[in-house]
Write a structure and sequence with these properties.
8-stranded parallel β-barrel, globular, 11 helices, binds erythose-4-phosphate, alpha/beta
Length: 219
């Protein structure tokens, strides 16, 4: 499963990138606004920090012509940019057109397998299925992910199912169990994946025993 960090903060991207395990970055208008910096400069810095990863940058227009103009502008900034498009009617039309032009897309704000079908048929590179926002309504957000993975596999769509709106490590586990292709999450959740009390206790014991014996590796 690919691992993306979900942030508009370049310092967070730099931290996740140094681990060498990052496959991409997702941003959205809220995250970019929160960064307090310009859209293009932020996206370009992220692209250079993760040159081999896919960097999602979202259009904000909601009518087709303006969305197309924004998509062409954004996709011209760097080769690893994926145009993020909301799942609205002109958005699906836009994804079909961008697919025709070989421009990669990430369809966002997807909550149902029916919406995912539209995105897959339009040729979306990624289908961003939000789970946390559905869980917030006391409903299982992962259900649509499971159904969408099955749909993509059953019909041989090329789209990759991207689990978004991830709030904690259990969502990551469930995304893996569902066979999702990608999971994007805040840096904090990636950091949580490192931790286990038995890892900490085990390492402490190893090092205590080693030091008590007065051993060393380097001469
Ligand atoms: C995905 O691309 C979105 O940016 C993100 O995962 C939304 O997460 P949220 O529901 O926690 O805002």
């Amino acid at each position: 499963m690919k691992l993306f960090v979900d942030t508009g903060d370049v310092k967070e991207v730099a931290r996740a990138a140094e681990w060498g395990i990052l496959d991409g970055v997702t941003t959205n208008p809220t995250l970019i606004a929160k960064s307090g910096r310009g859209f293009k400069e932020t996206v370009l810095e992220i692209c250079s920090l993760v040159p081999n990863g896919d960097i999602s940058a979202e259009v904000v227009a909601t009518d087709y012509d303006a969305m197309l103009a924004e998509a062409l502008e954004v996709s011209s900034w760097a080769e690893n940019i994926v145009v993020k498009v909301p799942l609205i009617e002109p958005g699906i039309r836009l994804v079909s057109e961008l697919t025709r032009r070989d421009i990669r897309t990430n369809v966002t704000l997807v909550f149902t397998v029916g919406q995912a079908l539209l995105a897959a048929k339009a040729g979306a590179t990624y289908i961003s299925n939000f789970v946390g926002r559905v869980d917030d309504l006391s409903t299982d957000g992962m259900e649509a992910v499971r159904d969408t993975v099955t749909m993509v596999d059953t019909y041989g769509f090329e789209s990759q199912v991207l689990v978004a709106s991830v709030r904690h490590p259990l969502h990551v586990l469930q995304a893996i169990q569902a066979g999702a292709h990608v999971s994007t999450m805040p840096l904090k959740v990636i950091e949580q994946l490192f931790g286990h009390p038995l890892t900490e206790a085990g390492l402490k014991r190893f090092l205590d025993d080693w030091n008590k014996a007065g051993l060393s590796i380097l001469p």
